[in-house]
Amino acid sequence: MPLSHMGQLWLDRAKARMLQAPDAIVVWAHCGPVGPDILTALLAGAEEHSLAHGESLGMRKRMLQVVVEAVDNLQRHAMGAMGEADFALLVHDRHGYRLATGNAVPCSTGAVLMNRVEILNLMGPEDVKGHYMRVLAMNARTANGGAGLGLFTLARKGSALSASCASLDPFTSYFTLEVSVCNKEDVPPAVA
After folding, report:
1. Percentage with pLDDT > 70 across the chain
2. Residue range 112-127: average pLDDT?
3. Taking residues 93-122, what's their average pLDDT?
4. Helices and strands in the chain: count of H runs, count of E runs
5. Would you say residue 55 lies in a domain?
6. Is it the case that residue 139 has pLDDT exceeding 70?
């Protein structure tokens, strides 16, 4: 299967899941390599949609931070020609926004990402923030990230992360990630 068709297949699967709510609409969908120009266009579309719907500055900022982090990860961690299979999808409904991304990764990277997502989902907001600050202080990052700060940012600005990893061949997996950015009234209160 051509890589662009594979990316479209994963994008269509994400759309089918995310558009089940009767009021859900696609803000934008992208399939293929992600470069700076694509990221800029996707951000502009998301901001334009948010402004047109009169959303609060706080909601817009959280949503844009999640979009930047998730889509920038596609750009930074693309596997050469496999970038043709990347996708990004932003959906809006009455609860807020849902973002889905997908890309090919080495199998070992997929396993590490799945483990990190599972651990982050078990942590409370204060734990996520504390670990984020510790990782920032450690200076364990490379030019392309690698310290896991992206997932921490998504967990801090959005709600629980949802991830899946499907084997494409013995060396490559397809990793998908979904995160929601909810309206303040839809976020459960912190437990004391």
Report:
1. 89
2. 89
3. 92
4. 6, 5
5. yes
6. no
Name the residue among 77, 69, 75 with its Cα closest to residue 146.
77
What integer pLDDT is reported at residue 7 of this predicted model? 87
pLDDT at 184: 66
Tell me the torsion sign for CA atoms 44, 50, 56, 59: negative
Three-state DSSP class for residue 8: helix
Nearest to residue 90, comparing CAs of 27, 177, 162?
27
The reply to whether 189 falls in a domain is no
Of 161, 156, 159, 152, residue with least CA distance to 187? 159
Query: What is the dihedral angle through the alpha carbons of 7, 148, 45, 12, rounded to the nearest 10 degrees?
Result: 20
Its domain, for residue 37, covers: 3-182
Measured distance CA(165)–CA(7) in Å, rounded: 14
In 32-191 the beta strands, taken as DSSP E runs, fall at 87-93, 96-106, 162-167, 172-182
- The answer to the question of residue 105 being in a domain is yes
Residue 192 lies in a domain: no
Tell whether the model's pLDDT for residue 65 goes beyond 70: yes
pLDDT exceeds cutoff 50 at 190: no
Q: Which pLDDT band, with edges at 50, 70 and 90, does 191 fall under?
A: very low
- Report the C-alpha gap between 155 and 157 in whole angstroms: 6
**Residue 138 sits in a domain of what CATH number?**
3.30.565.10
